[in-house]
Amino acid sequence: MPPTTVCSGGCASVWPPLLVSGSSPPTSATSLPGKLSAQADANGTQVEYNGHPLYIYSGDTAPGQTTGEGIGGIWHVVTPSLT
After folding, report:
1. Which residue has the higher pLDDT, 25 or 74?
2. Would the pTM count as exceeding 0.85?
3. How far apart are CA 45 and CA 29, in angstroms?
4. Where are the chain's structural domains?
């Protein structure tokens, strides 16, 4: 069963989906132990890691920022090293 979008409405305005454009699969600049893929839905083509949809935080203003980590005590940031 494909994953479902768990963030919509107000949530999606703060945590928009990480989208990829074009027909090529997503890639990473670093070696990953898992699998990057993409799933097309109503929002576009969302990047997934090991089947889990990925989101970005709207409050981040530069690459590498993880300002959204810990909001509500339930979010976990995926860094390039997956830590």
Report:
1. 25
2. no
3. 19
4. 1-22+33-59
